[in-house]
Every structure is written in structure tokens, then in C-alpha cells.
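Q: Could you fold this chain for me?
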Amino acid sequence: MNSPPTHPTPAIRSGLFVSDLHLFSPRSDAAHIPQQLAHVNAADQCLVLGGDIFDFRWSIRGSHELTLVAAIHWLEELLANTGDAHIRFLPGNHDCHPEFLARLAELSQLEPRFDYSEHQLQHGDALFLHGDVLDARGSLAKYRAKFHHEEPQTNVKHRMYDLAVGIRLHKLVPLLRHRPEVTSRRLRLLIEALHLATPATFKRVFFGHTHAPVFGHQSQSVRYHNPGAALKHMRSFPQPFEFDNPVSIGDSSPVARLSES
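A: Sure. Below is the predicted structure, expressed as C-alpha cells.
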């Protein structure tokens, strides 16, 4: 039996982190984002997709299967439009369905420039994660299981969500709930408690989930970055990162124990 192909480990000098596009949701406002991402196209660059890129919970593609197909097609198009750059996918709570993760694994075997990690990545001094550990209460597996939707949401639920968007409630709540200093400190404690990384190994954290932008806020010698969300009446600010010396983008971070919780 043929062994799966092995991909050389690339060295990266710079890249871009983006999350929370919520594609396929009627509230997504991410049509312009692929043009921004296409600027990451060199062999020494990496595009980190930090979760909730797709929204299986609120998808209006008609069925779960059609959403799966559309998500993989979007990733294939992104690969085609980003030259020699490397793409790393971190699922969030809205795009962590086990069947989708299986298709990500298939794509990673076919495409040397693509790979994914279920929980976090650490490249040099930069730690990347979706950030839903903030709401998981110690068990990310149980929290994410609540989002494994395969049936379309009802029209009533969509209308209720639209009402919240119409009065900007979806924008106000994250800004009040996730103030940079409070959220940064909570996130650091969770990273340490869940053994996602050793504090001494990272100086930058890139995360999503909260929909509240953070532009390099410093807390306890670590800088935090959050690109916000590409939803109606909100904005996404993809966060660039650079390294003084090239770093390997192999998944060198410690194995997360979240799935065992």
C-alpha cells in the first residue's frame, strides 16, 4: 500500500491571521476578504485561518452536505489565488464539525501548501488559536459538540438573529464583554491551565471568537491580536505577523488535552 505523501516543512518570514468570516451565514459581510488574503502569496508567507471561517450552524446553503462542499471549494479557490503561500486552518466552534475536519485532513494530504490543526498552532513566539476556550468552561470538546448542526436553522431563529443585528446588539455585546485587558488575562490563564503552550515560549497571541478587535494590546509582556469579525455592521481587520528569522510552520506546539476533557 502506498504511503501518504510527505510534505517538506516550510520556513516562514511573515503572514496574516484572519478569523470569524462566518461564510454561508446571511449575516456575513466577507465578500472583500479573499482579495485581501490574496496578497499573501510568497513561499515564505503563511495565511492562518483562525476559526469560524465558515458557519455551519447558520448556513443557508440548503443542506449540511452542500455546506461541506462549498467550504472545501472556497479553500481550494483560496489556494489557487495565493500563489506559493502556505495555509493553515484552525477550526472554531462554528466550523469544527467532525465530517468537515475529515475533509480538511483529505485536503492536507492532497495539497502540500495546506494543513490544519484542531486546537492551536505555535510558530516561533506566536501562538494562534480560535479563542473559544474563553467560553468552553474547561471542556472544548463538549462546548464544540453543541455546534455540530446538520439541519438548517428555522426561519424564526434567523429572524430573531436578524433583529439583534438590526439593532447592533451583536456588535455592542462583544465590545462590552470582551474588553482587551480582561480578555487577555483570562486567555493567558486558560492557555496555561490547558497546557496549550508554555508561557515562556510565546510573546504574541492571535485569537478570534470574541468579535471584538484587539490590535496588539500588551498584557504581562504578551501582545494580543484579534481581527474582529466580518459580519454586518462590523469589520474584519486581518492581523499581519512577521518573524526576525524564518521559522518552521510545522505544528510544534504541545498536544492539546482539550478533547480529553
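A (continued): The chain has one domain: 11-249.
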